[in-house]
Fold this protein.
Amino acid sequence: MPLAYSSRSNPPNGAGIRQWDGAMPILMSIIVLMMVAFDIWKHGLHAPHHDEDTADHIAMLLMYGQVPIMFWFAASGRKRVRRILPTLFLQLGLWAVTFVAAVRLS
């Protein structure tokens, strides 16, 4: 009898990105980058300073909400480090790009 797929089992082909905790931070970073790109398109690079609106709060929740998910992903995959490292590096890289874009452009 086959076992049900869970986050702690080995994903197909060993790809960590196929797990929810591997893909979710990447998706969250892409959403924030799209929000930053939309804000640049709407206001340009030298937008006047404004009070934080709903989009800014959502972006902050997405940025900092993915940190515990990345920790969970790293902790649950500690026995198969070589398989999860590419996904973890992608998660951390996108998070860093998102953070720099949010700090530099705001």
Q: What stands out?
A: The chain has a mean pLDDT of 80. The helical segments are 20-43, 54-76, 81-105. The chain is about 70% helix and 0% strand. The two ends are 54 Å apart (CA to CA).
